[in-house]
Design brief:
Radius of gyration: 16 Å
Helix content: under 10%
Order of helices and strands: EEEEEEEEEEEEEEEEEEEEEEEEEEEE
Distance between the termini: 12 Å
Number of helices: 0
Mean pLDDT: 95
Low-confidence stretches: none
Number of strands: 28
Shape: globular
Length: 300
């Protein structure tokens, strides 16, 4: 099951949360609501729980709140605890036991380098893990059960967007190491997800605002640069996250053209092959800056 939550609708920051079944095609269905309307959160989870953290809230402030849902049952989010500081668009990764949030906007949009983690099964506040090798926010990431990989996004100063990727060993603590480079520096606010073997990053924005449709892939167990996978059906950014099973990745919504083309499409790729994305269905709402995660990512 994949969850898609929140986002900016053009007039407000939504509380809406949809779910999809990744093994079938179809439209999003109502799951419940976020505790508070927000966009640009970070998300990850275990086989049982999803975690959604930080974000830009309906009152136009950044917050440090973490909430959780239980995938198997419909319902609203529940308070879990707090990040170490307010944070916009951190990148979430998980080994099924730990939920880890890498970098993010603190304060937005300068980007930070903190890595922090929680134990997914136990509510509580985040604990320091280490630092990324550079500051960013609104990056993208993926994971196996061993490694978390994240990067891209926007960085302080010129040239703003980066193609650098970091990795961590999730069962330990410590600073990140360099993983490799994206093929382009245009994956700011892209989507990312993986199975246990292969990670995919797709879409995003260059600076100035050009929205790309590039999909690239990485082999998680080895370090190295991205390789061309195919194209999204249309270029867009503000995707944030992604939903994966062992075989398939689904990416949601986003902003397809400046300034207000907020879309509700869902599209998929099959992880083991290369090729262009195809239609999966539609979200029940239109937004940019929604966040998504699933209970089958990274080999879980």
């Amino acid at each position: 099951r994949g969850l898609i939550a929140g986002g900016y609708t053009g007039s407000t920051r939504s509380t809406a949360t949809d779910f999809i079944t990744l093994t079938t095609m179809g439209n999003g269905q109502d799951f419940g609501d976020l505790v508070t309307g927000a966009s640009s959160k970070g998300a990850t989870g275990s086989r049982v729980r999803s975690l959604m953290a930080g974000g830009f809230f309906v009152d136009n402030t950044l917050k440090n709140e973490i909430e959780f849902n239980t995938y198997a049952s419909l319902g609203n989010g529940t308070d879990f605890g707090n990040l170490l500081e307010a944070n916009e668009a951190p990148t979430g990764v998980s080994n099924g036991t730990r939920g880890i949030f890498m970098a993010g906007g603190n304060p937005s949009p300068t980007g930070g380098n903190r890595i922090q983690y929680v134990s997914i099964a136990n509510e509580g506040n985040a604990v320091d893990f280490g630092d990324t090798t550079f500051n960013w926010y609104a990056g993208a990431g993926f994971q196996s059960t061993v490694r978390g990989v994240a990067g891209g996004g926007q960085t302080p100063g010129s040239p703003y967007n980066t193609n650098s990727m970091d990795f961590i060993t999730m069962s330990s603590t410590g600073n990140a190491s360099d993983f490799g480079d994206l093929t382009i520096s245009g994956h700011y606010a892209a989507g990312g997800a993986s199975n246990a073997t292969r990670g995919i990053i797709a879409g995003g924005r260059t600076n100035p605002a050009t929205y790309n449709n590039v999909i690239e892939f990485f082999t998680i167990a080895t370090t190295g640069n991205g390789i061309d996978f195919g194209d999204l059906t249309l270029g867009r950014w503000e995707i944030h996250g992604g939903m994966a099973s062992a075989t398939r990745i689904v990416l949601q919504g986003g902003n397809a053209s400046s300034p207000n083309d907020y879309i509700n499409i869902l599209e998929k790729v099959e992880i083991a092959t290369t090729g262009n994305a195809i239609d999966f269905g539609d979200m029940s709402f239109q937004a940019r800056g929604s966040v998504s995660c699933s209970n089958g990512h990274g080999g879980l």
